[in-house]
Specification:
InterPro entries: DUF4336, RibonucZ/Hydroxyglut_hydro. The protein is an alpha/beta fold.
Length: 270
């Protein structure tokens, strides 16, 4: 199934971009259910100490390795940002064995059931430990983070404080995936299922479709917890949003986040 989701030639189609001197995105085609063009993105952040943190890692191509080396090469943290964004953490963990691996509850068991590579998770966030679990002083000096256990995919969301940049996976989308398909020779808008998915997961205008989708979909299993997490994130200081699916929101990310999550934030403050 993985072969239907990700491109067989990642080096040829991946866009490696310096968002800032300390933030690099690795964007590539990705197909939900093997057909819908949602795009995929990994993010590499250089901390103030010089160490690197990798979020939702994508294919570890020679070009990505070269970029890692250009940033200093000290990969200290690898984060699977939910129970879905873990396909490449085995390769990254093997290449950088000293890195601390971060993930949400349920993912180690899922990987074992799927017989994926044996990866040791240094930190596993759970609904019970989320308010007490800390990574380490270096990481915590650079990032706010929240485990959105109320989301169906068990989202881990990070805010790189020095550059006010929110990094997230499936908490919200910003389709179409223009950058992610820009080297593929395919339109990010083609296909009826993709068009429907873009309509449901856009951020333009009132974005009522995505607001409704999140309200009735991934947040519905535990809405009180989801609302509390989203309200906490909304209080962080960020302007840029780097999602896994769709284009980077370069500015006014806080306002767009508040728009998409308006009903949840209001519910949390009743």
């Amino acid at each position: 199934m993985t072969s239907k989701l990700i491109p067989p030639n990642p080096s040829a189609v991946m866009v490696i971009r310096d968002v800032t001197p300390n933030i690099v995105t690795c964007s590539a085609p990705f197909y939900r259910f093997g057909r819908i063009k949602v795009g995929g993105r990994g993010t590499i952040v250089r901390l103030q100490s010089g160490a690197l943190a990798v979020f939702s890692p994508t294919a570890l191509t020679p070009e990505v390795k070269e970029k890692v080396e250009s940033l200093g090469g000290d990969v200290k943290y690898i984060a699977a940002t939910d129970i879905e964004h873990h396909i490449f953490i085995g390769a990254w963990s093997k290449e950088y064995p000293k890195a601390k691996v971060i993930g949400p509850e349920g993912l180690p068991e899922k990987r074992a059931k799927q017989k994926n590579e044996d990866v040791h998770f240094t930190y596993v966030f759970t609904a019970k430990n989320k308010n007490d679990l800390k990574i380490d002083d270096d990481f915590d000096a650079n990032f706010d983070y929240e485990f959105v256990d109320g989301h169906a995919n068990k989202e881990l969301v990070f805010n790189y404080k020095p550059e006010r940049t929110l990094i997230e996976a499936d908490l919200m989308f910003n389709l179409p995936a223009t950058e992610q398909f820009s080297k593929s020779g395919q339109s990010p808008n083609s296909g009826i299922l993709t068009k429907i998915f873009i309509y449901l997961n856009g951020t333009a205008g009132a974005a009522l479709a995505q607001k409704r989708l999140i309200w009735y979909g991934p947040s519905s299993a535990n809405k009180p917890s989801f609302n509390k997490s989203v309200d906490k994130i909304a209080k962080w200081d960020f302007d840029r949003i780097i999602p896994c699916h769709g284009d980077v929101i370069e500015t006014d990310g806080k306002g767009i986040f508040e728009k998409i999550m308006e009903w949840h934030i209001k519910a949390a403050n009743k």
